[in-house]
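Annotated sample (chain length 479).
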Amino acid sequence: MFSNKKSEALLAKIREGAPLMGREKLRLIVELSIPSILAQITSVLMFYIDASMVGSLGTEASAAIGLVEPASWLFGSLTGAASMGFAVQVAHFIGANDFRQARRVMKHGYLFCFVFSLVLMAVACGVSGPLPRWLGGGSDIQHDASAYFFIFSLAAPFFMMENLSSAMLKSSGDMRRPSTIAVLACVLDVVFNFLLIFPSRTVSVLGMDVPLWGAGLRVEGAALGTSLAYVVTSLILVWFNVRRSPILAWHLDRERFVWQPAYVMKALKISAPMALQYVLMNGAQIVSTMIVAPLGNVAIAANSFAVTAESLCYMPGYGIGDAASTLVGQTFGAGRQDLCRSFAWLTIGLGMGVMAVMGVVMYVFAPEMIGFLTPVAAIRELGTRVLRIEAFAEPFFAASIVAFRVCLGAGDTLKPAVMNLASMWCVRLTLAYALSQHYGLVGVWVAMALELTFRGCIFLFRIARGRWYMKPQTEKAES
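Output written by the structure step:
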């Protein structure tokens, strides 16, 4: 059913100005969404398995990683923001049937983002030592938390190249290869972590005792395993982009590479609001962690595990959001306003429907989802309670996820970034602090559910007003 050739044929109809029937539009959304959703879910399962491995080491190890997790998200978000500034331009040029300029943008993206990743790595490594203390972590987890974040930071260039290469392929309409590589990253991560976290031991296989090597690095092994997985997969993705992509491969160009500042300036115009948003949004996550930290190690661990468990339910939203960015980006570049709006509403509606179902699943199976991650009864009980609170907000969370990606596809990032920030800082953190004083971690998650519902509503209002769509402005660089 999900034929890559059929998807390419439908995308070609967008570029050629041919009409699309409602069934064709829905088919295209589904065919672009499915690989990305599967990759997102596999990624979450990877985090599940990682968390369960670390969880088996005890509450302190889980709390150490949970403490610096928001800072790690900031790390990944900045690489994503830098990548999207170039990927959106690539989608616009491909929609306009200008493949040569799409390749030019990609080359500029690789050079700029690599340099940026080195700066990011230096800053992250520099703050890794005092970071756990700044976040309010106890002395019993500060060493492990610092070590985890330091190792994670060293892989910045590979995280960046993986993110950029994947974004470029998705902008061209190729969801399958980056999704397949994402699955490979998950498999490698599990294997590396299994070998690096635990010490050498004997395992029973079909009744036979088999000696198994292990490095016994515990929390440090978890960071090293994840980093090594991204090293391998980033190299594969870069190779495919540069050598094998039918649209983006560099050998398709004959002229010399000439630096064009206009591409970078436009990328910064798109990326800067996203980067600021990610910094302040993840800063808000860090503040949220600081609100949770005084509640104790059980609350820190339960909060971290509940976030991991919830991510299994909202990953389909991000998968559909990837399809929305590609389709809106290419229709925007092609100047097809009606089709662009149609894809926007179809993807948002599909995202809300899928995540409503996932919210029901999360509510029903919350005990099992948390129980898989930790054997500690107190953490299980608290994690289950907060996860069930969040289940009610999933449809509106989907609206905010997909609508933001719709805006991104059209190059509209400033106002959506302000909307995200206002919602997080003015609604979530204010409520979280007030409710945590009386209801502990449960109060923090009630605040989260209310804020996500509010955020979804304001994004639906923005899409309905239509201000996110502007006339295509694909600059023609000098030949």
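Annotation: Confidence is low (pLDDT under 50) at residues 472-479.
Annotation: The chain has one domain: 4-202+212-465.
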